[in-house]
Amino acid sequence: MTASAGTATSYSTVSGEGRYELEIKRSRFVAVLDRVESEEQAREHLLAVRREFSSARHHCSAYLIGAGRHFQRSYDDGEPVGTAGAPILEALSRTTGPTGVADFSDVGAVVVRYFGGILLGAGGLMRAYSEAAAHALRNAPPVRRELLALFRVEVPVVAVGRLENELRSAGFSILGTGYGFDAARLEVALPFGAAAAYDLESRVAAATLGTADVTAVGERWADR
Fold first, then answer.
1. Is the predicted pLDDT of residue 14 greater than 90, yes or no?
2. What is the model's pTM?
3. Please, are residues 63 and 127 in contact by the beta-carbon 8 Å criterion?
């Protein structure tokens, strides 16, 4: 298992789009949020919103990407510096996920503004952009993103059925089963961490009387 120290092994994200609209002193703000897993996807999301709301004066945006939120960007798009992009980014950072923790990532928000002719001031702009982004995130369908450890279990064919049933009953994910002449191979995914790995090894040893081999083969992220 190779996750570096301090790297999150799970976080909140969204499985689809969220929107929210508000009007303040005749200025109309429309927030469009979606899942983005790369800076390229974030740019594509911004371009799509620009096309949809092409007549809007401002298309301000921000995104968070990665388990550790290593990629963060915000853009004011013509609004006074710090009054649009930064509040959107802060809203994404501080909104709590399904577990009650503010850990959303892989999300990008674009808030468009149609100017209503009345100046809102820096504070008014910041509140409007922040509120629109936060509500759009809350309106998107949430999902947990989890780092899974992948294992290969080599087991005698005569024991594979019993072992597979045991592991499924214990909540392990069986990704596939392959058969050879006298041995079978199970591909197993489990939550990342030493405790889950030890549980797998213990159950395999007990179910096969020590005749199976367990090998760590990598890791991957998955929605759960």
1. yes
2. 0.84
3. no
